Amino acid sequence: MESRAEIFQLSINFTPVRISWRAPGLLQKSESRNGRGGDFATQRISILSSQLISISVNLDSDSDKKTMEEWSIVHKVALLGFLGALIFGAVANKTHFCIMGSISDWINMGSRVRFRAWMLSIGIAILGSQAMGQFGWIDLDTTMYRGSSFGLAGFLIGGILFGVGMTLGAGCGQRTLVRVGGGNLKSLVVLIVMAITAYMTLRGLLAPVRIDIFGPLSIDLESQGISNQGIETILAHWVGVSGQTMAIVVALVLGLGTVIYALKDKGFRASGDNILAGVTIGVLVVGAWYATGVIGNDDFEPVPVEALTFVAPTGNTVNYLMTWTGAEINFGIAVVLGMILGSFLYAVFSGNFRVEAFANRADMRNHLVAGVLMGFGGVLSFGCTIGQGVSGMSTLALGSLVTLLSIMLGSALTMKIQYYMLDDGFWSSLRQSLADLRLFPAPK
Fold first, then answer.
1. What does the pLDDT look like over 163-218, one tens digit per residue?
2. Nearest one of 344, 327, 348 to 336, comparing CA atoms
3. Domain for residue 292, yes or no?
4. I want to staple 338 with a disulfide (CB 3.0 to 4.6 A). Which of 27, 82, 246, 287 is the partner?
5. Are residues 165 and 226 in the same domain?
């Protein structure tokens, strides 16, 4: 008699969800997915939902074993992204990691404890990613962050718009996904609007604005003898030292500097959740670079070298879900889905799942505007608080630093304006807010 191990086989693939039951004994000629035929009777129940997980339970001693080596590189990398995002979503939900919230704590209460968690994640991401680059494991110059076309206007305006949007919508891209997983219907609306706007900005109605207006404003660094927009590349060009030496110096200064900044505060060191969030996110960004840059480095089926980002991938995810029969999953889509599921699982098992809806029309209006601003601004600036703020910063790209500061400015300015508008008009509130941020003379 055949052993149970020979009879039962479980395989998990990134293909349409398909549950199959095959019983040996009745003769029927059929051809399996790998092209090999066999004599068996097939009773099949097919459930098509997402193209994320396929589970096949086969009762056929002659069935081929589907191992991970047989998967395509794209599917391997996507699975790793999905699993990493599961962890990210759960940890972000547990620790209440929110970059908009950290800026709010700083602006409104003078507390930078949560802000230090963001800085810790940036420092870890820089050190880990640059170490892999120095060892030759990955080539960060191939990423979208370090191109020779420096879109200063897009980084500034897009970053500010994103910062305004994430404040109106009570969270950036990653926080929106986490809140959706926790049952927040307001964030679901933001997610849908942000995704549609992002896709329109990438390939649709708003693409000409991005390409025809902001494209010509970009600075061509190669015309000035600079190969890319890496901070160390620009400094090395000015100082006259090797780029590799300068990369080590800049990575140590920025990486260790942000880690030390985060850990020197007693309040932060006493906050286990914030340390957990910062370490987890920093490590996951490094892991994402490894997954796409090392595991995904295949001569026949190369995967784009990318890390975690949550604006453009949301647009691609919506398009994927609408056209999944003709689409293929990728790293970014898997990360978006994993973030939502990870947050959802934590919320359910911790008893924190809550359905939350809009309080009034003004609340809904703010969230709709937030989705538009984050979708357009995030694509224009090449990322969000995680995409540019952590993943991009880990490449030492100057554009990432400009975007990070612009997002912070847009968010802080919006918070100040909202506060002053409780008692004053918009223009007076704007001037007072700029004065508070030391960007404009104080009104007399």
1. 999 999 999 999 999 999 999 999 999 999 999 999 999 999 999 999 999 989 99
2. 344
3. no
4. 82
5. yes
